[in-house]
Amino acid sequence: MKIYTLHTKQNLPISLEEAWEFLSNPKNLKVITPDYMGFKTLSGDDRPMFAGQIIQYIVTPVIGIPMKWVTEITHVQDKKYFVDEQRFGPYALWHHKHFLKEIPGGVEMEDIVDYKVPMGILGQMVHPFLVKPKLKEIFDFRRQKLIELFGEFKG
């Protein structure tokens, strides 16, 4: 069983409170997801984030096939971190930790995603040229969108 990790960091020139308010709101996930993914929240985004929250989405991760993705917010520490875990969806495992830390001139946002692709050895074979580049593309889009929304960190 192969588990992969995606690790990103980005500094934003905004307050910890502003970053938390934006990033912990499930409705904003659509804003920072590429349009071609057809991302749509079906339920669970009607209140502030809390541990135990179930959020259902429709997403089109590959070759135009829409699928349901269900995540649970398993941990929340106000203005510090939250964790979402896939319950149903395209991955065999998806565990995404979001950390925020105040730094001089802004906030550091860190994402650590541990994931496992489905379909055993076949999934592992397509990971390097299908799954990994697609995840990188999504997180690169997110980085650029956050710069558009909040400006570039000058630190």
At a glance:
13% of the residues are buried. This protein is 25% helix and 39% strand.
Strand order of the largest sheet: 1-7-6-5-4-3-2
Helix content: 25-40%
Number of helices: 2
Question: What would you report as the Rg, rounded to the nearest angstrom?
Answer: 15 Å
Shape: globular
Secondary structure elements and pairings:
Blueprint (H helix, E strand, L loop, with lengths): L3 E9 L3 H8 L16 E4 L10 E6 L7 E11 L3 E8 L4 E11 L2 E11 L3 H31 L5
Antiparallel strand pairs: 1-7, 2-3, 3-4, 4-5, 5-6, 6-7
What key phrases describe this protein's structure?
single chain, 7-stranded antiparallel beta sheet, 7 strands, globular
Task: Describe the structure in your own words.
The structure is a single chain. With 155 residues, the protein is an alpha+beta fold. The protein has two helices and seven strands. The chain has helices at residues 16-23, 120-150, and strands at 4-12, 40-43, 54-59, 67-77, 81-88, 93-103, 106-116. Strands 1-7-6-5-4-3-2 form a seven-stranded antiparallel sheet, covered by helices on one side. Strand 3 (54-59) and strand 4 (67-77) form a beta hairpin. The termini are far apart.
